[in-house]
């Protein structure tokens, strides 16, 4: 029965299924460089050209300027030396500003609206654990001129599967991501998902070859458990601790992005962990066409980021 189902799914993909559209994405150079600490990072001191086509029609062609520290450059209307506080934004492609030019990102709008000099530490595909790994291994004062500020972690629901190394994420890109786990309530790290949790990661790789699992996009674990939230809490708390080691008077803020279904549970976790947070899950609906770059694109446009920046600025003011 299992073989019959599997071969039926393979037949469906090969003989029946037709994609509603074709899409192509080109990077020159690659936006993902292997990194022993973060799993992946941006190539330093370069310009990445990102091209996206749908049905052979150009949707966008953007240039991402990357600085010497592997951050996407955020233009500013003020001189860095005249600004006393910084806002470093961590997260994934949503923090990075995937598909948008440098004056349409969250960091740019926050820099323009607030008294903070904004720095974009977002990298496509990253999760909450990269914020912790970065803080544990980087001296921020060597990268940021301002003497104090706020770290803003832009949270989306997919950060939890990335943190736990779920089947879908191991298949796609998270094999070499930092592997954090709880041992009797103590947060520990053991290399990456591949080196520190090799058997389970190999198992996920093997079952990801199944057409049945691929067709229905079945993830393992298939739900967010309390233990997953406890791990998230521990990673966030340790991130705050590491940040305040470098900036004792700094603020550590988690922003829950729009459309988060986990927002009620994440909010409870953050409140219980004494973590400052801003819940923007109901601010807008990112699936509305007015917030989309293109109907095929899962990443939002500049209107989305402007509204989020306005909310963050109002909260921090």
Give the gist of this structure.
This protein has 317 residues and is an alpha/beta fold.
Describe the overall structure.
The structure is a single chain. The chain has helices spanning 2-16, 93-96, 106-113, 128-137, 159-164, 167-172, 193-196, 198-207, 211-216, 226-246, 263-272, 302-316; strands spanning 23-28, 33-35, 39-41, 46-54, 57-66, 85-90, 116-120, 148-155, 178-183, 186-192, 251-256, 276-279. With 317 residues, the chain is an alpha/beta fold. It has a 5-stranded parallel β-sheet with strand order 7-6-8-11-12, with helices on both faces. The protein has a 3-stranded antiparallel β-sheet with strand order 1-4-5, with no helix packed on it. Strands 2-3 form a two-stranded antiparallel ribbon. The model has no long low-confidence stretch (mean pLDDT 95).
Number of helices: 12
Distance between the termini: 62 Å
- According to DSSP, the number of beta strands is 12
Mean pLDDT across the residues is 95
Helical proportion? 25-40%
Q: Give the H and E element order.
A: HEEEEEEHHEHEHHEEHHHHEHEH
Largest sheet: 5 strands, parallel
Q: Could you give the order of strands across the largest sheet?
A: 7-6-8-11-12
Rg from Cα: 20 Å
Which structural class should the secondary elements be placed in?
alpha/beta
The geometry reads as: globular
Strand content of the residues, in percent? Answer: 15-25%
């Amino acid at each position: 029965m299992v073989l019959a189902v599997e071969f039926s799914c393979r037949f469906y993909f090969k003989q029946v299924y037709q994609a509603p559209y074709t899409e192509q994405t080109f990077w020159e150079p690659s936006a993902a460089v292997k990194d022993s600490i973060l799993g992946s990072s941006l190539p330093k001191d370069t310009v990445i050209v990102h091209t996206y086509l749908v049905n052979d029609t150009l949707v966008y062609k953007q240039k991402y300027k990357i600085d010497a520290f592997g951050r996407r450059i955020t233009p500013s209307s003020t001189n860095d030396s005249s600004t006393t506080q910084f806002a470093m934004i961590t997260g994934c492609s949503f923090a990075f500003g995937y598909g948008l030019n440098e004056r349409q990102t969250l960091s740019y709008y926050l820099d323009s609206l607030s008294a903070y000099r904004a720095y974009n530490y977002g990298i496509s595909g990253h999760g909450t654990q990269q914020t912790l790994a970065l803080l544990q291994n980087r001296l921020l004062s060597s990268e940021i001129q301002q003497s104090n500020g706020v770290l803003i972690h832009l949270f989306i629901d997919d950060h939890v599967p990335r943190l736990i190394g779920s089947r879908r994420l191991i298949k796609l890109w998270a094999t070499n991501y930092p592997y954090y786990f709880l041992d009797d309530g103590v947060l520990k790290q053991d290399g990456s998902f591949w080196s520190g949790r090799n058997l389970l990661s190999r198992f996920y790789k093997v079952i990801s070859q199944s057409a049945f699992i691929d067709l229905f996009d079945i993830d393992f674990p298939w739900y967010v458990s309390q233990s997953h939230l406890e791990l998230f809490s521990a990673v966030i708390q340790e991130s705050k601790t590491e940040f305040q080691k470098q900036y004792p008077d700094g603020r550590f803020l988690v922003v829950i992005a729009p459309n988060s279904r986990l927002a009620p549970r994440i909010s409870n976790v953050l409140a219980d962990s004494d973590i400052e947070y801003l819940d923007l899950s109901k601010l807008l609906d990112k699936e509305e066409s007015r917030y989309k770059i293109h109907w095929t694109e899962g990443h939002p446009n500049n209107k989305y980021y402007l509204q989020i920046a306005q909310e963050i600025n109002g909260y921090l003011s």
